[in-house]
Amino acid sequence: MIIPFNRPYLTGNELINIADAHSRGQLAGDGHFTKLCSAWLEQCTGCNKALLTHSCTAALEMAAILADIKPGDEVIMPSYTFVSTANAFVLRGGVPVFVDIRPDTLNIDENLIEAAITPRTKAIVPVHYAGVACEMDRIMEIASRHNLLVIEDAAQAIMSSYKGRALGSIGHLGCYSFHETKNIISGEGGALLINDPTLVERAEIVREKGTNRNKFFRGQVDKYTWVDIGSSYLPGEITAAFLWAQMQQAEIITSRRLLIWEDYHLAFKKLDEFGRLRRPITPLNCKHNAHMYYLLLNDIADRSKFISAMNQHQINCVFHYVPLHSSSFGSLNGRSLSDLPVTLEMSSRLVRLPLWLAKKGEFHHKISKIATSYLNASSL
Ligand SMILES: *Cc1c(COP(=O)(O)O)cnc(C)c1O
């Protein structure tokens, strides 16, 4: 039997909620289930306001509008990330300025950020890779000294924390993804967390096609009209109904994922100590959400051999990302401080193992057994 890289987890309550949404007769956005989901996000993260969006990409695009990115404005971010982190700003004419990552967490290296700041810098976008926090105290301190906005790409980071604070709730804005490859899902889906209260009113307008419709519904204005730029960033109620079923099991989903993660971590301990590979490193002040389990092998050839060995056993392991600064579009539209050697190295060594919740059976034991015996047998 083939073990796929990912399989979406279903709680069993998704269709019940969707039938409920259907019978309520309100299927556009911001109905019953959207309200439940946003209230849950506000309660569990402590953010000022949570707005559901149809993807994390959409939340990042809203953040770029709220940050008032104008052509030529610079936005500091890692190159080791998904394209949407950069694209959202490039859409507004912004210039991504790529900074190298830390070798331990693979997150943006906070010590390199200040050298990337110019008079055109508007924002810093830390990406919490694998649900492990960036060094947020330092990043917030740099941002406040230079009067920059911090937008957390917390796509992978729901239920993760830094010094006890939920990721996505620390910067001025935070963006979550509920794509089916993430921990809590609705197929496509996302949320914008607004922590800076001064951005809430405009965020509601931008999300509602540039109108003050929300104020109208609250009775704060007597007609609703076009007041700003915007787009349609809200998901319908069917999506929110699905998502609500997942949110209600967020604790269970996270703890089950953590058990698999811990099993993997233990299984590869000896090989790590022996220097055959490197396992993920989680700083003491970070609580992660077991979004992914990865291994860092010795080099790209070692990784290719590992992936084909696993494929021969019908186990699908994958790698990512092509560093954005090395992509054709990224090198034309962005700027990097250096060759970003850590980014290039890690992106060629990293491999991700399947991590998903099976109905029954513990497929990950089989994976670690096959992987460890291959790695033990293959000489350096
Ligand atoms: C998944 C992901 C996104 C995009 O999320 P969508 O909901 O698919 O738009 C953005 N950034 C990072 C780091 C991601 O992992």
Helix and strand arrangement:
Elements: H1 14-24, H2 32-45, E1 49-53, H3 56-66, E2 74-78, H4 83-90, E3 95-99, E4 121-124, H5 136-146, E5 149-153, E6 161-162, E7 165-166, E8 173-177, E9 190-194, H6 200-207, H7 213-217, H8 237-247, H9 250-267, H10 269-273, E10 286-287, E11 293-296, H11 300-312, H12 328-333, E12 335-336, H13 341-349, E13 350-353, H14 363-377
Parallel strand pairs: 2-3, 2-4, 3-12, 4-5, 5-8
Antiparallel strand pairs: 1-9, 6-7, 6-10, 8-9, 11-13
Helix pairs in contact: 1-8, 2-8, 3-4, 3-6, 9-14
The structure holds pyridoxal-5'-phosphate (PLP).
Pyridoxal-5'-phosphate is lined by residues 55-57, 81-82, 84-85, 127, 153, 155-156, 177, 179, 190.
What does this entry look like structurally?
The protein has 14 helices and 13 strands. With 380 residues, it is α/β, with parallel strands linked by helices. The chain has 2 domains: 234 residues, Type I PLP-dependent aspartate aminotransferase-like (Major domain) (Aspartate Aminotransferase, domain 2, 3-Layer(aba) Sandwich), CATH 3.40.640; 128 residues, Aspartate Aminotransferase, domain 1 (Alpha-Beta Complex). The strands form 3 sheets. Strands 1-9-8-5-4-2-3-12 form an 8-stranded mixed beta sheet, sandwiched between helices. It has a 3-stranded antiparallel beta sheet with strand order 7-6-10, with no helix packed on it. The chain has a two-stranded antiparallel ribbon with strand order 11-13. A hairpin with a 2-residue loop joins strand 6 and strand 7. The two termini are 30 Å apart. Bound molecules: pyridoxal-5'-phosphate. Pyridoxal-5'-phosphate binds next to helix 3 and helix 4.
